[in-house]
Amino acid sequence: MLTALAAAILIFLGYIYFHNRLAAARNSVATGYSGILVQLKRRHELVPALVQSVRSALHQESQVFDRILDVREKAVGALQMDQKAVEAAEADLSASLRKFFGYAEDHPEITSTGNVRELQKQLEETEDQISAARRLYNGNVERFNTMLDSIPTNWIGRSMRLERAELFTLSEAEVKTLRSMPPIDLPGAQS
């Protein structure tokens, strides 16, 4: 009788322990995703300031700026939707910003103003912080999903009705950019 009671208490304590670990992992995923959203919002706030600064330097290219602001508005709206909508909208915004920075490289008068350079620097820092937040989030997702796949936490996860979390992935355009090696032309290099 005493042995059965001790076993029941041990099972109950084990259940509580694993339940709490799963709850902590689930909360880490939510916190990581929140960190991504904070950085995305920061980027969204910087974009209009960048466009306004550049517009003052270059009046004739308003369609470039309008496109960036339109994509930014879609990205802000996507923050209220599901993760896939956020990923798609952010991929569009990233592509628009890459086009803009390419355009800015071809027009030195844009980057000649100090505020444009400062905003560009802040955007680059924000991109780094977004990458760090994505890595943290994806690490938390991996840990959580592994717990949902492992015994005995998978049993407890099912009793809690927990579902696997989705990784914050790169868009197809970002993957394509990563896979393509830019041509490197070094002086004196042999072909």
Protein architecture, described:
With 191 residues, this protein is mainly alpha-helical. It has a single domain, classed as LemA-like domain (de novo design (two linked rop proteins)). Helix content is 80%, strand content 0%. It has seven helices and no strands. The protein has helices at residues 2-57, 62-78, 83-106, 108-111, 114-149, 153-159, 172-179. Helix 2 packs antiparallel against helix 3 (83-106). The radius of gyration is 24 Å and the shape is rod-shaped. Residues 181-186 have low confidence and may be disordered. Its main location: membrane. One of its GO terms (cellular component) is membrane. InterPro entries: LemA-like_dom_sf, MamQ_LemA. It comes from Amorphus orientalis. It is found in: Membrane.
Question: Would you identify the CATH H-level superfamily?
Answer: LemA-like domain
Fraction in beta strands: under 5%
Mean pLDDT: 80
**Chain oligomer state:** single chain
Please outline the major beta sheet.
none
How many helices in DSSP terms?
A: 7
Helix content: over 70%
In N-to-C order, the SSE pattern is: HHHHHHH
**How would you sum up the global shape?**
rod-shaped
What is the CATH topology descriptor? de novo design (two linked rop proteins)
* Gap between N and C termini: 82 Å
CATH class: Mainly Alpha
> Total domains, how many?
1
Tell me the structural class.
mainly alpha
